[in-house]
Write a structure and sequence with these properties.
binds adenosine-5'-triphosphate; 4 domains; 43% helix; D-amino Acid Aminotransferase, Chain A, domain 1; single chain; 622 residues; 8-stranded mixed β-sheet; DNA ligase i, domain 1; alpha+beta; 7-stranded mixed β-sheet; 22 strands
């Protein structure tokens, strides 16, 4: 496909104001590509040069981008810089200058998606001495042949964000739209959908049939994505073999599985009421790692499915030594351990192990311990459908003796008192709390279910847990904050049913002066004129931004509010956070923010806890 055509679609997607339209345009574009191109378009549309877990980056910083734009358009660098300061988006700068180039190139050629992608792949692979010059040359070569609009998107690739606002769910919806006809060729599928709609009258049934079919297919595609986190390859398989191809797709060491997630409950009683007899494990405050072993090859993925292997030579070594299985995928939480005091270091210390340089020294200073808690794959077999108790047994057998990798400390109980004691002991040992696990539940990749329930240290008078919110806009600073260009944030939770972001809080506290400037420089690059397509908010910020950054926020409580659209019902009231304050940036995708459902559940739980606390206080005074 010609790159100019891809850019025409990208341009339409960038400007569209409804998610439905966005999905439709994306589906149309994907339907016109061939199997070689479809993956490339998907990766590029997400601002990457391959599946996220491979972490392929162009390695062109802003400085080099400015040089490249100047070189290709014939404008001096300081003019490019000046324009960049004015409009805050190098893509727009390239578009503007690209459209009125001062020099015409002798070697201009028509760009195709394949050419753009392969040039960027070469740019990414270029390393070592003189690499910056080579990168610059290849990048300028692309710009040389580009029109204004093409230059805009080409220049945004190295920045890792094309500003299209396309998330994984939109891509999956677009694929579902394109393959629903094939899906409905199977009689059994049609029958299953008909059965669900049996009760409805003829007209309603007709109306809902298509929607249900797409939803069902989307669930199927997502179930595959959950065990094989590479939408580019999934789309390619679909192009080559249709839905049959997806049937054959199974998990493989080397490709991350989307992690299962924990629900919350506020007390030991409620956990036991929900699960009955359950496993209760210590909750370690480190980072979650997914370890893959395929013979001699060991790969360690983060919670966000990024390859972190080079950061943890001590763990790679331990996996080699302690894990006897040839092919295995298992998960655990890694924590820095103080050999001298025999205690775990706090998170602030553990996090120092996430680094690109000085790895060996830090590994010696703060060796990690890995607490294994689940297993998904063993010697070619998918262990996810097994009940948790069986998986734990399998995991215990797979991990050999040694100090570095051990299983999480755990008890089994159906007694709230025992659970509470174990919780208090964990907190006393400096841990975060506990996670209770349903002994009979399978491993549900990519889902937050009551198979895992977390209970954390409670902060009296506050929400017992922080929430993660996507930033959807900001307010210009006033008074003392004028200098930072940012005074507050408009934030949203994620509505996973409709793939929308719904507003929940305006946040003006918790940010240091450094954070304010960092926020402004990060957010101004994502600004756009109107409300982004996947955002639902009645509160208007001074500047809208596409959901991209996620921040951790603590608040006093959740209240009903007419100001926000999170959970807004027919009565016109939604939910809001009371006294929200920003804690830090989170390395999460916006779709991994706290969901509307979670906020509603937290609101309901909070009511019960407050009632219980009031009752206890009353009992004490009697
Ligand atoms: P999310 O639930 O989205 O991961 P989060 O990053 O805020 O949100 P928590 O709310 O702290 O995570 O709780 C879940 C995390 O707890 C897991 O992802 C894992 O990293 C960590 N964890 C620590 N100990 C355990 C354990 N024994 N079993 C499972 N997870 C554990």
């Amino acid at each position: 496909m010609e790159f100019s055509e891809v850019c025409r679609y990208f341009d339409r997607i960038e400007k569209v104001s409804s998610r439905l339209e966005m999905t439709g345009i994306l589906a149309e574009m994907l339907s016109k590509t061939d199997s070689r191109e479809i993956g490339q378009i998907i990766y590029l549309s997400q601002g990457t040069l391959g599946p996220k877990h491979l972490g392929i980056e162009a390695g062109i910083g802003e400085g080099l981008l400015v040089q490249g734009i100047a070189k290709a358009t014939g404008y001096p660098e300081d003019e490019v810089e000046k324009l960049y300061k004015e409009i805050g988006d190098l893509g727009l700068v390239a578009e503007k200058l690209g459209a009125k180039k001062r020099q015409s190139s002798l070697f201009a050629e028509k760009l195709t998606i394949g050419k753009v992608f392969s040039n960027f792949t070469k740019i990414a692979e270029t390393e070592g001495k003189g690499s910056q010059d080579s990168k610059l040359k290849m990048f300028a070569e692309l710009l040389n042949s580009a029109s204004g609009t093409e230059a805009k998107f080409i220049s945004r690739v190295p920045l890792g964000n094309l500003r299209l606002g396309i998330g994984d769910p939109t891509i999956m919806d677009a694929l579902a739209l394109n393959y629903v006809e094939e899906f409905l060729l199977v009689k059994k599928t049609r029958g299953e959908i008909d059965a669900v709609l049996k009760e409805k009258n003829e007209e309603k049934r007709k109306e809902e049939f298509g929607r249900r079919a797409r939803q069902k297919l989307r669930e199927f595609i997502e179930s595959k994505y959950n065990i094989f986190s590479d939408l580019g390859e999934i789309a390619e398989i679909l192009k080559k073999k249709g839905l049959k191809g997806l049937d054959e797709l199974s998990m493989q060491p080397g490709t991350p599985i989307r992690p299962t997630l924990a629900e919350r409950l506020p007390s030991a009683e409620e956990i036991i009421e929900k699960l009955g007899m359950c496993a209760v494990e210590q909750k370690y405050d480190g980072f979650r790692l997914q370890c893959h072993k395929d013979g001699n090859r060991i790969i360690i993925f983060s919670r966000q499915s990024e390859d972190m292997t080079p950061m943890f030579p001590d763990l790679v070594e331990a996996i080699r030594k302690q894990v006897k299985a040839k092919r295995i995928i298992f998960e655990g939480e890694a924590l820095a351990y103080n050999e001298e005091t025999q205690q775990y270091f706090p998170f602030q210390v553990t996090i120092q192990r996430k680094r690109k340089y000085g790895i060996k020294e830090k590994a010696e200073e703060f060796p990690l311990r890995l607490f294994a808690f689940d297993i998904m794959f063993l010697e070619g077999k998918d262990t996810m459908p097994l009940p948790f108790s069986k998986r734990r047994e399998t995991l215990a057998k797979a991990i050999g003796k040694g100090e570095t990798i051990t299983l999480t400390k755990s008890i089994e109980t159906n007694d709230p008192k025992k659970l509470e004691e174990f919780f208090l002991a964990s907190v006393e040992n400096g841990l975060e709390g506990i996670i209770a696990k349903d002994l009979n539940a399978p491993y549900t990749a990519g889902a937050r279910k009551f198979a895992w329930i977390k209970l954390k240290r409670s902060y009296k008078g506050e929400l017992s847990d922080s929430v993660d919110l996507a930033v959807i806009g900001y307010f210009k600073g006033r008074g003392k904050r004028t200098q930072f260009g940012l005074g507050g944030l408009l934030t949203a939770v994620y509505d996973d049913e409709s793939d929308m972001f719904r507003s929940v809080a305006k946040i003006g506290t918790g940010m240091s002066e450094e954070m304010l400037s960092e926020l402004e420089s990060k957010l101004s690059r994502l600004s756009q004129k109107g409300r982004p397509a996947r955002v639902d908010s009645e509160t208007e910020p001074d500047i809208w931004v596409k959901p991209f950054y996620v921040i951790e926020v603590r608040a006093d409580e959740i209240t009903k509010s007419p100001m926000h659209t999170c959970g807004k019902g027919k009565d016109g009231t939604g939910f809001a956070l009371r006294f929200p304050r920003m804690i830090k940036f989170r390395e999460k995708k916006p779709e991994e923010s706290t969901t509307v459902k979670e906020i509603i559940a937290m609101f309901e739980k909070q009511g019960r806890v407050q009632l219980q606390e009031a009752e206890t206080a009353q009992e004490k005074t009697q």
